[in-house]
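Here we describe the complex-level prediction in full. Unlike the single-chain runs in Section 2.1, the four entities below were treated as one system.
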Amino acid sequence: MRTAGLRPTRQRIALADLLFAAGDRHVSAEALHEEAQAAGFSVSLATVYNTLHQFTEAGMLRIVQVEGARTHFDTNVSDHHHFFIEDENLVFDIPSGRVEVKNLPEPPEGTEIANVDIVVRLRRKVR
Amino acid sequence: MRTAGLRPTRQRIALADLLFAAGDRHVSAEALHEEAQAAGFSVSLATVYNTLHQFTEAGMLRIVQVEGARTHFDTNVSDHHHFFIEDENLVFDIPSGRVEVKNLPEPPEGTEIANVDIVVRLRRKVR
DNA sequence: CTGTGTGCAAACTCTTTGCATAAGT
DNA sequence: ACTTATGCAAAGAGTTTGCACACAG
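The structure predicted for the assembly as a whole is:
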């Protein structure tokens, strides 16, 4: 954290604990905020946003934009793709190395590919 | 339009004209609203939103969610994917039939794939 | 005429910002 | 002490909604 030029404040440490304790996670700012409250320490929502963005700039998180409005932050910063269950606001990784994209067209004149995002939208089976 | 159970009102007709006159288009509500104003007939932004959603439900448009916040509506309702130039808010189709996804993993127990969206994010080459 | 559509403004959701206070080093 | 972070509340962007008036059938 220090190497990223970020002061290890209480709030940042607490949020980092929540984020990186378990394996890969996908959180929205609001979800993380609630989680922090539930865990008993108070952080303002604004600070959660700030912190998430600072972590993102430091390369510790990446942003996954799977739906309008809400932004999801992913603790897995390697190159991979996502499942998304619409009705539940749930994002999770597609096991990496599995998906392969073939025949990507050349990008138009004067542009280059920044990255390729694949989102597989899921729905619950109604039985 | 009538077959979709939608009354062909002035506003709807005018918006449909703008949308379907030329080939495939990708518009945001705001962009279409401005375009209507520029074309000399007044439609309220709320009506543009309503109309776009009604057209979407009628299967005449599809929603492309490539970035946070803004929603893009696509007049090409066939199965295809998109290029997106971030800094210009520009969405356009990847020539269909070209891209192919291999090795898609099985969706988790109890879910099924609703659809697969591929967004190729582009950036302008700086020369 | 009757019912659906439109326009306006207010409400809403998610996110960002400004500024005084608090906390790290 | 000096500087950077935090918290709050207000502002902002995009979208939706409620309700009176207008218009298509």
